[in-house]
Amino acid sequence: MATSAQGTWRVAGGAGSLGSMLASWFAASFSAAAQPPPQLLPARMQMAFTLGTHIILACLGVAFPLVVLIANWYALRKDDPVALLLAKRWSKVMAVVFAVGAVTGTVLSFEMGLLWPRMLGQFGDVFGFPFAVEGIFFFLEAIFIAIYIYGWKRLSPKVHLWTAVPVVIAGIGGTVSVVAANAWMNHPAGFTMTPSGELTNVDPMAAMFNAGTGYQGLHMLLAAYMVTGFLVASVYAVGWMKGRKDRYHRLGFVIPFAIAAICTPIQIIVGDTAARQVFSKQPTKFAAMELVWKTGPNQPEYIGGILNEETGEVTGAIAIPGLNSILAGFSVNTVVQGLSEVPPEDRPPANVVHLAFDTMVGLGSLLLLLSGWFGFVYWRKRDLPKSKLFWLLAAASGVMAITAMEAGWIVTEVGRQPWIVYGIMRTEEAVTDAEGVWISFGVFVTLYAVVALGTVVVLRGMSRRWRETSDLDDIEDTDVPYGPRHAHEPHESEPG
Predict the structure, then answer these.
(1) Mean pLDDT per 10-residue section of the chain, whose length is 496 residues
(2) What's the rounded Cα separation, in Å, for the pair 332 and 328?
(3) Which of 163, 180, 325, 492 has the lowest CB atom count within 10 Å?
């Protein structure tokens, strides 16, 4: 299993596990368990940090190819040199981000085995299959990204365009595959466990296509497109606010923002469906999300607030009577299980889960309104909104989307605690006994800081060069240093 786990958390996998880690770090501070193993807290913190960082790169790796593909397609369809320039430049950013994401994903592959060996040792044969599938998609994506990058001026325009399609498909396949592994942690399936703890009747396909794969995979995929679309668009929104209101910045904003805006209402619907699945399959998590203390019908929906787990009282919240039951089962008579029925040692940290849930829903709703604003104005006037408020929000939309995504994974994973495999294995039972986890945590923080700094320096350097040129045929071999050159196109340092 150690081998099959390598490469697992690269493209979208970081997301998946943001749970027993990001989540687990918070859970450690609120756990009612007696005395957790000494390595539990640093292991949780290390995975929380590395996964929380990697998931941003994973989203870009998954969704950026579609942004590039659409810009390239539009350029060929409309014979638009500005759109072609954007596609060329974005393809370089895509390559940089993919390379950095591959590095951070490789780190995570080893961390899974080193920090949580008991889970992989016991259940690796069950949920290892989606990791292998994700690895295939990862390599396909890497191959076709290379072909696409080096194909500028070396392939016909239409053939070159088609080489980007497998990149998009591989990103989708990799996302669904690796999220299936995380969905299995929330909905374990595909095996029978004997009283002695041995696994029999192992069915990898049933494990991969478990009860959570569909809604979690789609939810993550839409989140990736939202994060990428809003993040890329926010860069051009800042330029627009600084007075760069040319066609380059207009297209640079519209293409990614439109993708994110289309995905946002779909994401709201998928998220609502996912919440009802949690209500049905993981009632304790749902109770923590909604701060439900006593089981019963006509449960209020709390916006904000803090739960006192001694008295069951929620303070500082806006309560909407009956709405929680309506959202869960379309009726005020829907009975929702409360946390008071769950032993304290089996409860997730409800206030952390509820705060993250409110953050995700609140920011998602704000992005929905922003998307609607953009769509309405563009439909009515075929123009961009003029309001300064719109552009301020658009400039912040990338950060909002990232925050909403991270909050969503906290809900998913902290809400599963204290289980790493829901209802079967506790997180503290899976952690390593090895010493030195605090040291490795410090090493990884330093390593990631260096990688992040290097990435920012490279991307800012590229951006600075692009601002200084208006060349609409800007695709120099110096920006893709390992690409072959035509014999009649000497390097700039060579005599021509």
Answers:
(1) 33 38 43 68 86 86 91 89 89 86 78 83 82 86 88 85 91 88 87 81 86 88 94 91 86 93 93 89 90 89 88 86 88 89 88 92 94 90 88 94 92 89 86 84 86 83 73 45 42 40
(2) 9
(3) 492
Q: How far is CA 311 from CA 209, 263, 306, 355, in A?
A: 41, 41, 12, 19
Amino acid at 251: L
Whole-angstrom distance, CA of residue 397 vs CA of residue 240:
14
CA geometry: angle at 494 spanning 488 and 496, to 5°? Answer: 50
157 within 8 A of 83, measured Cβ to Cβ: no
Residue 320: beta bridge partners?
A: 301
Task: Look up residue 170 and give its two tokens.
Answer: 């591989």
pTM greater than 0.85 = no
Task: Quote the distance between the C-alpha of residue 476 and its chain's center.
Answer: 32
353, 416 Cβ separation under 8 angstroms: no
27-57 CB burial, b ≥16 within 10 A, e <16:
bbebbeeeebeebbbbbbbbbbbbbbbbbbb
Which of left, alpha, beta for 79 (phi over 0: left; psi -120 to 50: alpha)? left
Angle at 172 between CA 171 and CA 173, to 5 degrees: 95
Distance between first and last Cα of the chain: 55
Structure token digits, residue 104: 């951070």
Closest CA to 365 of 252, 489, 264, 487: 264
Q: What is the CA angle 476-479-485, rounded to 5?
A: 55
